[in-house]
Amino acid sequence: MVSSLLYPEKRSKPLAVALPTSLTVDAPHLREKTIKAGLIARTAAIFRVDEIIIYVDKHGTEDEGELLANILRYCETPQYLRKRIYTISALFKYAGLLPPLKIPSHTVASSLNDIKDGDFRDGVVIKTYKDGSLVDIGLDKPFLVPKKFKRGERVTVKINKTKDSLKLSVVSREDVKLYWGYTVNYEHKGLVDSIKGFNADLVIATSKYGDPITEVFNDVKDAILKSNKILLLFGSPHEGLFEICKRLKVNLSDIAHFIVNTIPFQGCETVRTEEAMLATLSIINIMQYI
């Protein structure tokens, strides 16, 4: 079983980030788009983000959103399941450039001898029966679980190991105490509807025109400690959240509890979305500890 000394537990409060479909639009080639998506995936995993929401910020960028969602899901999938879940596709032509996440669901034992009682693993259903499903969990052979699922469905299982056999039971991700990865939500909705769909009780928007984090640090920290569900909003490479909301005829202050500049005194004229995400999550991550 993966030690909690090596990997921290999942967050006690769900944390999501909302990213625009146009995030990769300025990358000139699929290769650069893939690398950018990989940085997003890596950042989300480092800071134990629970959900990545992709919102449509501009008409015509929906396909970019599909590309981003697919690559993010691919990154989050354990390597031993990728060939089962994903067919050969031009979308993943440069998948070899994606950084490994090395989250607990990825760094599991590869041999039956190394499996321990109580281990969790992700698997994919490869065959269904009347009273059960055959699941590939990346070991020498697939195993039967006593519940019927759809073929191709991804499941999380808990292993009961005895001296002579392994028995699997399907569990919820909520049953796994360690950080187990993020989910990707792309429903082709705009910014406002995406915020409503997540139903957070604390929404923090990021903008270079927002209040410097140095001035509102304690207020944001107190709000995070009191909240139950947190959503961070990020703008696009060519439009910040104020510009996006102006085009939508919405006041950003009406949909966010805080509008914060998490990189005050920035040295560059512009900060890329993936850079803003890294900086913002770095600050959010330490707030509960100081």
Explained architecture:
The chain has 2 domains: about 10-105 and about 185-285, SPOUT methyltransferase, trefoil knot domain (Alpha/beta knot); about 110-175, Nucleic acid-binding proteins (OB fold (Dihydrolipoamide Acetyltransferase, E2P)), CATH 2.40.50.140. With about 290 residues, it is of the alpha/beta class. The strands form 2 sheets. Strands 8-2-1-10-9-11 form a 6-stranded parallel β-sheet, with helices on both faces. The protein has a 5-stranded antiparallel β-sheet with strand order 5-4-3-6-7, with no helix packed on it. Residues about 1-5 have low confidence and may be disordered. It is built from 8 helices and 11 strands.
Please sum up the structure shown.
By secondary structure, this protein is of the alpha/beta class. It has helices at about 30-45, 60-75, 80-85, 190-200, 215-225, 240-250, 250-255, 275-285, and strands spanning about 15-20, 50-55, 120-130, 135, 145, 155-160, 165-170, 185, 200-210, 230-235, 260.
CATH class bucket of the largest domain? Alpha Beta
Give the biggest sheet. 6 strands, parallel
Strand order of the largest sheet: 8-2-1-10-9-11
The number of helical runs is: 8
Mean model confidence by pLDDT: 93
Give the beta-strand count. Answer: 11
Tell me the overall shape.
globular
Secondary structure: helix percent:
25-40%
- CATH H-level name of the largest domain... which superfamily? SPOUT methyltransferase, trefoil knot domain
The name of the CATH architecture of the largest domain is 3-Layer(aba) Sandwich
CATH topology group of the largest domain? Alpha/beta knot
Straight-line N-to-C gap: 31 Å
Weakly predicted, low-confidence segments: 1-5
Strand content: 15-25%
The total number of structural domains is 2
**Taking Cα atoms only, what radius of gyration do you get, to the nearest Å?**
20 Å
Structural class: alpha/beta
Instruction: List the helices and strands in order.
Output: EHEHHEEEEEEHEHEHHEH
